[in-house]
Structures are given as structure tokens and as C-alpha cells.
Specification:
The structure is a single chain. 0% of the residues lie in helices and 52% in strands. It is built from no helices and eleven strands. Strands 2, 4, 5, 6, 9, 10 and 11 form a seven-stranded mixed beta sheet that branches. Strands 1-3-8-7 form a four-stranded antiparallel beta sheet, with no helix packed on it. The radius of gyration is 13 Å and the shape is globular. The mean pLDDT is 93.
């Protein structure tokens, strides 16, 4: 089992930056793909970013490319999502996820955190 706990959400203004953290514990593996997804009210869960730590190649959803960055802490038990130039349409609950397969399809992930709310005011 893998446990994921997100933190760092909050209320910010458009143009601001915010960094989300995901604390990873349990039966972790460097082979995992770590992903971030978000879900706004009434919408399907949307892919934000993912990274396969074996080859360190990140991927991003089109709506966040150039603004968001996924990274891992030196201790390798924390995953970050740096969000810059935030827009009101970024408002959502953000989830951290882990899986051996990973990718941009949220259905591929077995492990999820509880989510953290990000609200961007205009």
C-alpha cells in the first residue's frame, strides 16, 4: 500500500504562484509514476502533470504547460507541483496519484491522496 497526503492548497489571486506538496509513504518504489490531477465541480478529473522517476521525463496537460512544474524532493518522499501564473480556471481540487503504469489517464492510477483545494480569484 502507498499513502499520499497533499497539502499547500489555498485561496490566491490570478497571477499568483502556489506550490502543492504530496507526502509519499508506505511501499513506495522508484518505478512509480507520480501524477497530479485536478477536478472542478461538475467536471471530469483532468490530467495536470506526471513524472516517471526512472527516466525523469515529465509530461503536462495542455492547459498548464509552461506554467506548472512537477518535481521531487531530495528525500524522494515528497512530490511537488509548482504552479505559476495561476488563472481562475485553475480552480479545482488537486489530487496526487501514484502507479506503476501512470500516464495521463486517471483511471490508470491505483493510489490517490485526499485532495487539496486551490481557488484562484480574478
Amino acid at each position: 500500500q502507498v499513502q499520499l497526503v497533499e497539502s499547500g492548497g489555498g485561496l490566491v489571486q490570478a497571477g499568483d504562484s502556489l506550490r502543492l506538496s504530496c507526502a509519499v509513504s508506505g511501499r513506495t518504489s522508484s518505478s512509480y509514476v507520480m501524477g497530479w490531477f485536478r477536478q472542478a465541480p461538475g467536471k471530469e478529473r483532468e490530467f495536470v502533470a506526471a513524472r516517471n522517476w526512472r527516466d525523469s521525463r515529465p509530461s503536462y496537460g495542455d492547459s498548464v504547460k509552461g506554467r506548472f512544474t512537477i518535481s521531487r524532493g531530495d528525500a524522494k518522499n515528497t512530490v511537488y507541483l509548482q504552479m505559476n501564473s495561476l488563472k481562475p480556471e485553475d480552480t479545482a481540487v488537486y489530487y496526487c496519484a501514484a502507479d506503476f503504469g501512470g500516464g495521463s489517464d486517471y483511471k490508470s492510477y491505483d493510489y490517490w491522496g485526499q485532495g487539496t483545494q486551490v481557488t484562484v480569484s480574478s
